[in-house]
Each structure stands twice: as structure tokens, then as C-alpha cells.
Design goal:
The longest helix is centred in the N-terminal third of the chain and has 18 residues. This protein has 11 helices and 8 strands. Among the domains are: about 45 residues, Helicase, Ruva Protein, domain 3 (Orthogonal Bundle), CATH 1.10.8; about 100 residues, Tetrahydropterin Synthase, Chain A (2-Layer Sandwich), CATH 3.30.479.20.
């Protein structure tokens, strides 16, 4: 049957799919709109299955901090290519997902994927459908939801790196500027933990072994290897745990000292850092 331009446009408005895809779907369904929608959704499922192993190294990172500053959410929606990451539909979808995360207070990515958007379909279903429209893999590669006395967010200028910082023990101090500085520090210096005790045991063991091997390669006596490796581990703590890092804006003090200068009770409860393609 002949498919009118009006029908194609109507399906496009209903689904957001491209004009040619809508015409093809209507043709296959003999003009039945529900059947055409099913065809478009199946196309998304095929794309999702076919491109499941593809790398997603582009996309957008978004944050939301509650009006009282005590809750923060961080979302990274990734795609395969930069042009798709710039499309308004992709960015709208990312914002819609973050908005529903805020509204529902989703605790995890798995919970978020099950929640329905305004069209009544789940986040996961919307992602699959959009894959059918653009022909690329999409994935929520990170979602975080944290609480504290003060949550501060930071998004890097490229839109692909985001940080949430949770601070407790404010004691009435204004920590907005300090929080931004520390969040930017986390973005730039990539700490693996807040402090030494937050570094997982496997990482500690690996660093000790690396330290020993380096010392051994330098011809150091076997009985000195443990001591040398411990020294290298302490250097690792200084470089890769937030509180022990030198403050980028003023290397004469550590982040620990920076916090103490603001309020003796001030602590970093936790932080979350998500980057796309890096």
C-alpha cells in the first residue's frame, strides 16, 4: 500500500526515528502504526545485540545536586561516536534519564534501568529503541547516588568527566569554593581512594611487588627489597590517595591540610569520579 508523507511524519513524531526508517516500517506493517512501532523496536534490539561488544568512548556526563546540597547524582551515558554524542535527541535522553533518577532516587544502575520514563517504557527499553534510530551502541557506563552534609559536583569542560564530592563535619563552615577546588583536584589527579585505608588489598600487594621488582632490577640487596618497596608504597599513597596528595593550587599543603585549615572537623566522606573514554 502507498504510505503518505503525513503518515511517515506522524510515526516519526511518535517514535523519533528517521524518516526513511519510519517509511520502511510502515511499508512492512502495511500502514499499521502499532506494527510499525514494533518493527522499529526490533531494529533497536538487533542493533543492541549486533554491537554489544563495541567500545563506547564518547558521550555525556551529567550531575544533579539537590537544592539543599545533601544529595548528588552522577550519570554517564556513552555512545560510539562523537557526532551522536552531540545530537539533541541523545542529550535529551541523557537528561531525561537523570531527571527520572532524581525523581525516583534510584540507588543503582540496575534499578535505574527498570524505571519508566514519561512514555511509560523503561529506561532500558528507551536505550534499546534509540540504538535502533542511530545504529550505535548506547550504555549507561556509570551512575552514582551519594549523600552527605554537603555534596559538590564538577563537570569538566569536555562534558565527558564528572565528579561528586561528599563532605561531612562542616561545623558551619562555607565549603562551596573549597569543595569545587577538591572536586577539580579529583578530576585532574585521579586518586584511587580518600586515604590509605581505602586502597584495596590487591592494589597494595601489587604495588609492593612492583616496588620489589624495580629494586631487584636496580641490583639492590634482597634483604633491602621489603623496605624499599614499603617506601615506594608510601609514595604511591601520596600520589594516589586524595588526602595525601599535594593541593594542585598550592603544593605547599596537602588536601588533608587544606580541609583542616577550613574546619578541623571537616572530612571527605567519599568521592565518585566517572570519565568516558579515558
Amino acid at each position: 500500500m502507498a504510505i503518505s508523507a503525513q503518515d511517515v511524519n506522524k510515526l516519526r513524531q511518535m517514535t523519533g526515528a528517521g524518516m526513511m526508517d519510519c517509511k520502511k516500517a510502515l511499508t512492512e506493517s502495511n500502514g499499521d502504526f502499532e506494527g510499525a512501532i514494533d518493527i522499529l523496536r526490533k531494529a533497536g534490539q538487533k542493533v543492541a545485540s549486533k554491537r554489544a561488544d563495541n567500545t563506547v568512548s564518547e558521550g555525556i556526563v551529567l550531575t544533579n545536586v539537590s537544592s539543599d546540597g545533601t544529595n548528588g547524582k552522577l550519570l554517564a551515558l556513552a555512545c560510539e561516536t562523537e557526532p551522536v554524542s552531540k545530537v539533541e535527541g541523545f542529550r535529551t535522553l541523557a537528561q531525561d534519564i537523570l531527571d527520572i533518577a532524581v525523581k525516583s532516587n534510584a540507588s543503582s544502575k540496575d534499578d535505574l534501568l527498570k524505571i519508566s520514563l514519561a512514555d511509560g517504557r523503561s529506561v532500558e527499553e528507551n536505550l534499546v529503541d534509540y540504538m535502533g534510530k542511530i545504529g550505535e551502541k548506547l550504555d549507561i557506563i556509570g551512575y552514582e547516588n551519594i549523600n552527605a552534609e554537603k555534596v559538590v559536583s564538577y563537570i569538566h569542560s569536555n562534558g565527558k568527566l564528572g565528579v561528586l564530592l561528599a563532605l561531612d563535619g562542616l561545623a558551619g563552615a562555607n565549603v562551596e569554593e573549597l569543595g569545587k577546588d577538591v572536586a577539580m583536584q579529583i578530576a585532574a589527579m585521579k586518586p584511587v581512594a580518600v586515604d590509605k585505608d581505602g586502597v584495596d588489598s590487591k592494589t597494595v600487594e601489587r604495588e609492593i611487588e612492583i616496588g620489589k621488582e624495580q629494586a631487584r632490577a636496580e641490583g639492590k640487596p634482597e634483604e633491602m627489597l621489603e623496605k624499599i618497596a614499603t617506601g615506594k608504597l608510601n609514595r604511591f599513597y601520596k600520589d594516589f590517595t586524595l588526602l595525601n596528595q599535594d593541593f594542585v593550587k598550592d603544593p605547599s599543603k596537602s588536601i588533608r591540610q587544606l580541609l583542616a585549615d577550613t574546619a578541623k572537623t571537616l572530612i571527605v566522606k567519599e568521592f565518585k569520579r566517572i570519565v568516558i573514554g579515558g
